[in-house]
Amino acid sequence: MWISRILRSSLIGLGAKGKNISTSKGLPKKLPIAGVQNVVLIASAKGGVGKSTVAVNLALAYTMLNSAFRIGLMDADVFGPSIPQMMSLEGIEPEVNEKNLIIPLQNYGIKTMSMGSLIKKDSAVVWRGLMVMSAIQQLLRKVAWGPLDTLFVDTPPGTGDVQLSISQNIPVQGAVIVTTSHSLSLADTRRGIEMMLKLKVSPLCLRPATCLHSTPEHRHCAGTPLSHSGH
């Protein structure tokens, strides 16, 4: 499979000659994604709170609000990608352009890419940290995202390597933190917000994912922002 060759060909930022640009403190220098103006993380400290649903709904809402908005959606949940199914893009293999960049899949006017589109369906991803970091770098740097006004990044639940890698490698304008009203979720959310602040990523809002109603055809979720960056 061609994508396997691409994933093996270059480990960006992991020692490949000419690829690792570091600061004096040993951290990688933040470089913007070509053609992408803004990057917003969709995060949650606990799984199962509706984070991916919020990510998809945000991307759709911006596109519906103004068709001129150029919106992208990146699924950074390497071990449990759900965006292809939610965006009705399952089973579609992306192509590459003349620059050997992956062409993102599109539906509803949204450029979308996920590790779930690059591996066989139902295949288990059993990777160590370095391979996960390489996969994230491929999704960031080896996909022809531009031109985009905003790229929403659906991150995996928790406070781990993926969030750290993204925030240290590219400029991030902020994060939408998704939670529920359950006390356990709120406790983990506090830790997630603290991690974002340490990474100098501004929490844009704390969004409780509250499902209003569900039908076989449509699932509607909404929430009220509880806090904004700087508060």
TrEMBL record:
GO biological-process terms attached to the record: iron-sulfur cluster assembly; mitochondrial respiratory chain complex I assembly
GO CC annotations, alphabetized: mitochondrion
Keyword list, A-Z: 4Fe-4S, ATP-binding, Iron, Iron-sulfur, Metal-binding, Nucleotide-binding
Entry-linked Pfam families: ParA (PF10609)
An example Gene Ontology molecular-function term: metal ion binding
Family: Belongs to the Mrp/NBP35 ATP-binding proteins family.
The protein's name in its UniProt record: Iron-sulfur protein NUBPL
